[in-house]
Specification:
Blueprint (H helix, E strand, L loop, with lengths): L2 E8 L3 H9 L11 E11 L5 E11 L2 E12 L4 E8 L2 E12 L5 E11 L2 H30 L4 H4 L7 E6 L6
Antiparallel strand pairs: 1-7, 1-8, 2-3, 3-4, 4-5, 5-6, 6-7
Helix pairs in contact: 1-2
């Protein structure tokens, strides 16, 4: 099953980055492959965490697939966990983490594991998804620079760096 995990140090606070990732309605403006997103609902779970349910349409060339997921936003722990509910996947899970490094910087972690129900769809869209996931962290950092303003590296002590994957597993071979 394809998996991708990365960590990126950014010159924005953990709270700002958490809020940016939680603002799912804006994803079509900047998230790779996200053609549209419809908010289905916002609730709170028993622990008091915000829960967002949304339907996203991912598009690549002539292919379009929609899926529904539920995100649990744990502001105290600075973690967003996304669980798959419905669509073309057999499995889709992703987690965002935000580790504060002072008031103006943080480490943003992103991990995802996914598997399409159809091997044909896995073959057609798998490579595009893998490439897009590698661009996610940079897309969110660029969005943060636009929304919150680009911070000076001299002021924050954070040096720009390329997104380096910690773990990347290629799509599974058909058996």
């Amino acid at each position: 099953m394809p998996q991708f995990q990365t960590s990126r140090r950014v010159a924005h606070s953990a709270t700002d980055m958490f809020d940016l990732v939680a603002d799912v309605e804006r994803y079509p403006e900047f998230v790779p492959l996200c053609e549209s997103l419809k908010l289905i609902g916002r609730t709170r779970d028993a622990a008091g965490h915000d829960v967002i349910t949304a339907r996203m349409t991912a598009a690549y060339k002539m292919l379009r697939e929609s899926f529904t997921s539920r995100a649990v936003l744990d502001r105290e722990a600075k973690v967003i966990r996304v669980a798959y509910l419905d669509g073309p996947f057999r499995r889709l899970e992703n987690v965002w983490t935000f580790k504060p490094l002072g008031d103006e910087s943080c480490d943003v972690g992103f991990s995802i594991a996914y598997e399409f129900r159809s091997m044909i769809l896995q073959t057609l869209m798998g490579a595009a998804f893998d490439k897009a996931f590698r661009k996610f962290a940079a897309a969110f950092e660029e969005r943060a620079d636009k929304v919150y303003g680009k911070k000076s590296s001299a002021r924050t002590g954070v040096q720009p760096a390329p997104d380096l994957p910690l773990k990347a597993t290629p799509p599974a071979e058909a058996s």
